[in-house]
Amino acid sequence: MDVFSKSDPLCALYINTSGSHWYEFGRTEMILNCLNPKFAKKFVIDYYFEMVQKLKFCVYDIDNSTYDLSDDDFLGELECTLGQIVSSKQLTRSLLLTDKRPAGRGTITICAEEITDTRVAEFEVSGRRMDKKYLWWSDPFLEFYKQTETGWQLAHRTEVVYDNLNPIWRPFRISMRSLCGGDVEKPIKVVCYDHRISGSHDLIGSFQTTLAELQVGTHISPAEFECINLKKLKKKKYKNSGVICVKRCQLVKDYTFLDYIMGGCQINFTIAIDFTGSNGDPSSPRSLHYVNPDGYNEYLAAIWAVGNVIQDYDSNKMFPVFGFGAKIPPSWQVSHEFPINFNPANPFCAGIEGVVQAYQQCLPQLKLWGPTNFSPVIDHVTCFAKQALRQNTASQYFVLLIITDGVITDMDQTCAAIVEASRLPMSIIIVGVGDADFSAMEFLDSDDKLLRSPTGDTAARDIVQFVPFRDFQGNSVALAQSVLAELPDQVSSFFNSYKLKAPKYIQCF
User: Fold this and answer.
1) Which residue range or ranges hold the C2 domain (predicted)?
2) DSSP string over 280-303
3) Domains in the chain, start-ordered, CATH in brackets?
């Protein structure tokens, strides 16, 4: 779809649970300059035999950095049921346009497998003396493939290490089901490429092995594998195109979200509400803070939608709620972190009903002002997440819901705060209300690449989920499903990465 290059495809998965409304379940990574992409991202979906679970896979050519896909080129879609995919194991269909005509010659292939093994393999991998592919350097990355009945299936892709013939890749994890289906003797193919921005990556070399062989480096010296480029085998002096060193390949049990929740982990829910002047005078029907006769506005709708789901995982259902960007009594100084019940010693509200009541009572007492600073409320929750991590248990996880109408003023400080929070048991949900430009929020929700602070520090993981309220047309169920879809994996992946075991199940009688 691009004039001077190939398309940059991404696939978004949508699920239909209410008859006519589709909500986004997740997205793959974007593949640069590629007409035959293989996506490494996996979607984990609960399968119910007794239900018709409608799915829609939409493929786009990504042309900008905004979250909204409506301004990207649509390449085609496939609408099917989860039952069709499960019964086929591998389903290949033509991509269609929205009017059901063929979208050129494009096809999509979807593979499904049951998750019966929750173990993961943790890797530390480096390379030595990789072939030079451009003058005196290469930009190597690795792809791991699982052998299936229909051929090699991509299981994992590492990051690119630029300008380096002796690369050291960041530690990574691959689930046993993705890598070898739980069989340590099943063949695995590892391919090393030199990255090209054109998408036509240059093969450095490859090798085949098994998980059992990869584990050798964990017990003695690093397991080493020669990267072979078959086209170079004719040359008499050719030995290899570099050596891949596996310093560590260790199998560990990956505890699930349910393991942690049923073991007693509490989800601590904090709400932060934007009271900046751009929301408009709350007494005016045109204001985003105006509460209509039915007791509704977009702020309240977001609180109800997300809070009603989250509160089931918090035993005491006492939620701290803060406002930012307003002048508050009695000093009428601008504050970016004030409890909406005006009680700093006890900023908690009892249940979502208490949150709604406190919100409605505080509105007439505020002077909406500015600017829009996120970092103070993020830092506030970060303090408690740090204390929880020091306990060295998987007993508490923190979720911050920020509801806002506009552009972030303290972007550098916010990026730094999020990078710090990414190393803690914490996630951030941002709901954008109104019709403002939310490009800054979309930047923070870094699905394709990890966020970096102004000082160059990289986030340990993606902890921000942003959605614009306007995309859900008042459908609170779909809104909650969209913003909370990534949370279970964020909880389990954090605790697993710190090797914090799930407490034993609580037996119920």
Assistant:
1) 1-95, 104-224
2) --TTSTTSTT---TTS--HHHHHH
3) 9-111 (2.60.40.150), 119-253 (2.60.40.150), 257-312+372-497 (3.40.50)
